[in-house]
Amino acid sequence: MSDFKAVAQAVVQGAGQLHKAKPELMTGFMGLHKAAMAPGALDEKTKEMMALAIGVAKLCDGCIASHLQKLVSLGLTADELNELLGVAILMGGGPSLVYATHALEAFQQLTA
Amino acid sequence: MSDFKAVAQAVVQGAGQLHKAKPELMTGFMGLHKAAMAPGALDEKTKEMMALAIGVAKLCDGCIASHLQKLVSLGLTADELNELLGVAILMGGGPSLVYATHALEAFQQLTA
Amino acid sequence: MSDFKAVAQAVVQGAGQLHKAKPELMTGFMGLHKAAMAPGALDEKTKEMMALAIGVAKLCDGCIASHLQKLVSLGLTADELNELLGVAILMGGGPSLVYATHALEAFQQLTA
Amino acid sequence: MSDFKAVAQAVVQGAGQLHKAKPELMTGFMGLHKAAMAPGALDEKTKEMMALAIGVAKLCDGCIASHLQKLVSLGLTADELNELLGVAILMGGGPSLVYATHALEAFQQLTA
Amino acid sequence: MSDFKAVAQAVVQGAGQLHKAKPELMTGFMGLHKAAMAPGALDEKTKEMMALAIGVAKLCDGCIASHLQKLVSLGLTADELNELLGVAILMGGGPSLVYATHALEAFQQLTA
Amino acid sequence: MSDFKAVAQAVVQGAGQLHKAKPELMTGFMGLHKAAMAPGALDEKTKEMMALAIGVAKLCDGCIASHLQKLVSLGLTADELNELLGVAILMGGGPSLVYATHALEAFQQLTA
Lengths: 112, 112, 112, 112, 112, 112
Prior knowledge:
The structure is a homohexamer.
Chain A lengths: L3 H18 L1 H15 L6 H14 L3 H13 L4 H13 L2 H18 L2
Helix pairs in contact in A: 1-2, 1-4, 3-4, 3-5, 4-6, 5-6
């Protein structure tokens, strides 16, 4: 099993490295990120849950680690996570079930 | 541009045809669907929004039509849709922007 | 609904056009195709069923049209198709159900 | 290289954990699984081969581990696996070749 | 066959509609787009060719239409397109061949 | 973090093993590979950059390792890699950013 704190940290570090090398590129990405996640008609937690659901659907461990870390800081409960994963499994079948188990493991590590 | 009401209807008809041919298979799928979408820690609208976001991320017009039709019946606003699409674009870049434009068109057709 | 005979025919025509322009490229692809589909430990029909299942899982109408046309010529029954689609739905959830309905429609057109 | 027995075991454990937390969700999934894999017009081994081919095409190690473990118990031969992987490579190119090598490694571990 | 000029135009219109509704979101996306496509170590045409290759690999007609339209304005030749499609086929197998034929059709329409 | 030299080596070894077992299959794949990558209207480095961009977009570590190893031998600079990754992020959003960080790590390992 992966160390999901390390996975999330590696994404942050790599993005920081890319920011140093190509500041305008990562400024562009962060601008999109900020606009997409800004609370409005939907709050930030709902938006992060959608991002996590997509990350599970795309079979992307780094996405799971990053968005789950944010969601834990926003107060995501185990029950909310389980139901989110149910939607991902409905929309992705067996492969999404596999990455749902990654998300469960990540949640245990990130809330330990 | 597709006729998204017809797209949603074709999915329903095809699923019905598969149900007649293999009732236990579609009973299994509908059981998963019902369990995944049942309100609990998250309400049905939030769950359908996650399903739609995944449908956009997977570039699936039939998913967009079906889940958007359900969301319209649950009272989804244009503003909520736009923000949902923002998350999908953040998690999918250009291809998700393309299918976000399909979702906008579908919303106009389904709410006309 | 698409005209799946036309979809399959367009793939053949486009591949032929690419063959004229870059013969070594399409000779390479056809060499891979021939080797992958040659009967051996598994027969051609089983191999084509796996290819169709992947085509459904990848949400690819042109793949569905092409491999289903071949499978119809190999004697695929409606019952076999339905069960193949069940596996694709298990491995892909809602989006695969959508494209399973495309495959059902294609089968009706290609066997009419 | 991954330890594919551990990968398959982690999927089982995570699914079990999700079953405890949301029994109706996993009962739904298992109902779909049972219906999709039940022998009928196609036998279970053919269905599991299609599931494995999709798992390779979706670049999903957990799927490869789980479905290959089942296939080994159903008597899959190395020759049958190699030909299955050929179809996956035809339908997925380079990325599928990468995960075909994972499947070869997994087969060696699971049959050792 | 699709009308790829209309497909490209629909993406532009939908993106414009989203820009009106959520200006900060599309400003964010356009900032990322501008930074990613700005000539630097690689020129714009090379970057657009990579974007088109990804669009083919992701089976996205709207991406093919949009990036091919830009590439035609940058002087892409039929020979360059054919070789780009060869790479996409190597990296995506049969499904990419299907969308390579869409790109060939789009090129004929956009250069007619 | 993965050892990307080992990842690239594992792909070569697995492909070699498949070649021994099914020579005609891998001869077919290598024929496609050779034809797709042969310099013509586009040079080999441009083609390998497109292959790497697709590998990042498909979230495939083995593809990143293999194509980056080749690109390092063809003289890819850090600046070229960063700009290639910008296009992949534009075409894939957050998940592609995650795998862009894998590519950065792989580049450091392969050029150390």
